[in-house]
Amino acid sequence: MTAELTFATTRREDPVPAAERETILANPAFGTIFTDHMLTALWTKGEGWRDGQVRPFGPLQISPAAAVLHYAQEVFEGMKAYRHPDGTVWTFRPERNAARMARSCERLALPVLSEEDFIGAIRALVTVDQAWVPASGSGESSLYLRPFMFASEAFLGVRPANEVTFSIIASPAGAYFPGGMKPVNLWLSTDYARAGAGGTGAAKCGGNYASSLAGQMEGIAQGCDQAVFLDSSTHTYIEELGGMNLFFVTRDGKLRTPALTGSILEGVTRDSILELAPDLGLEPDEARIGIDEWKDGVASGEITEIFACGTAAVVTPVGELRWDGGSAASTAGAEGGEVTRRIRQTLLDIQYGVAEDTRGWLTRL
Ligand code: COI
Q: What span, in angstroms and rounded, lies between the C-alpha atoms of 168 and 152?
C-alpha cells in the first residue's frame, strides 16, 4: 500500500502560552491535558481517504445518528513520542501499531489505513506539536498519542459505515498510575469476562474497554486498582487486565505471559519484553496459565514477581491478588521486584535513546 493522505495544517491562533505549557510538561498526569492541535481525515466508501488536516484541538462535530454512538464501530491505538538527549523526537515500533490497527479495523469492518498513512499522520501531528514532547531526562514523561477511527456516518441501520473519521490527539503524559512504581493490587473478576471466543478481544476497540469497567468497579469497591479477567469459557485461564498484559517471573528464570488466544490484546510492550527477555537472562514462555498457578505459585515461592505492561503503564509491579473470600500475597515489595525494575529500565532506556536501539525499534518523527 502507498500513502493516500497529505495533511493541510491550520495552526491554532491562541496556542497555550509557552510558560503554561512548560508548567504542564514539568508534571503531566495521564490523559487530562491535550496539545494545541489534532489530526483528522475522512474516508468515504468508493472514494477512500481524503481531507487530511492538522487543525486546532477542539470538539468534533458529529451527528447524534453517527453509527459509532449506537453500534460502537470504533478502534484506537496507544503510542508515545519520546525526546532523546540530543533533542530529537522518536516513536517506538509504530509499524506494530499500524499493523494492529489494520487488524482491529478488519475485525470492526472499518477501512484500513496503510502503514505509510498511519506513520505519516503521526509525524504530521507531532511535527506541529513538537514543543509538547517533554524534555529529555524528565523521568517517564512522554507525549502520549491516541490515534482512533470511528463510524461517523449518520445512519441507524446495522451495517459497516460508509463514512469513517480517523483522528489523532496527543496528551503529555507521566506515569499512568498516580502511585508510579507503587505495586497495583488486582481484583480477580469471576462474574465478568472482558472478551469471549470469536469476539473482539484481540482488537483494540472501545467496546472491550467498556466491558472491562464493571469488573474494574467491583475491584475498586474491594480496595483494588484494576481487575484481572479470565477466559470466558472455562473461567480458569488468566487473560489480561483490560488495558494491560500480565507477566510472571519464576524462580527458575522464566518470564511467562498468557499465550494469545484470540481474546487477549497483542500488546506492543508485551511483544518487546518477550524479545528482550533472553538479553536479560530470562527464558520467555507464552503459555495458557491457570489462575491456580498464580495462587499456588505465590504461596510456594515458584512465582517471584508479577507485573503488568502496556504503552501507557510501561511496566507496573503487581502487588496482591484478591478474590471473593481470599487473596494471594504480594511479591512486589514497595517498588516492584528486581527483574521487574530491570525490564522496565531496559525498555525505557531504548525508548528514550539512552541505550542503543540494536533492533531498529525507533522511528524518528
Ligand atoms: C495504552 O497502554 O496505550 C492503552 O491504550 C491502554 C489504556 C489503559 C490507556
A: 15
By CB atoms closer than 10 A (0-12, 13-18, 19+), residue 13 is exposed
Decide the pairing of beta strands 184-189 and 226-229: parallel
Contact 133, 83 (CB under 8 A): yes
Cα within 13 Å of Cα(227), Cβ side:
25
ipTM of model: 0.97
| Residue of the CA atom closest to atom 6 of ligand 1 | 243
CA–CA gap between residue 290 and residue 234 (Å, rounded): 10
Ligand 1 centroid to residue 244 C-alpha, Å: 7
Cα of 204 from ligand 1 centre, angstroms:
9
Q: What is the DSSP letter of 134?
A: P
What's the distance, Cα to Cα, between the start and end of the chain in Å?
20
- At 173, list the grid cell: 503524559
Question: Which segments of 10-47 are extended strands (E)?
Answer: 37-44
pLDDT at 147 > cutoff 70: yes
Beta partners for residue 305, in sequence order: 249
Closest CA to 283 of 247, 236, 309: 247
The pLDDT tens digits of the residues spanning 188-206 come to 998 899 999 999 999 999 9
**At 286, which amino acid appears?**
E
The C-alpha angle 166, 172, 174, rounded to 5 degrees, equals: 125
Q: Is the pLDDT of residue 2 over 80?
A: no
Q: Which of 311, 315, 316, 347 to mutate to test the pocket of ligand 1 (most atoms within 8 A of CB)?
A: 311
DSSP symbol at 219: H
Ligand 1 centroid, distance to 92 Cα (angstroms): 15
Integer Cα distance of 358 and 354 in angstroms? 12
User: HSE-up of 82 (CA within 13 Å, CB side)?
Assistant: 24
Q: Give alpha helix (H) positions in 92-231.
A: 94-107, 115-128, 206-221
For 314, residues 6+ apart whose C-beta sits below 8 A from its C-beta are: 140, 175, 176, 269, 344, 347, 348
> Residues 327, 175: contact at Cβ < 8 Å?
no
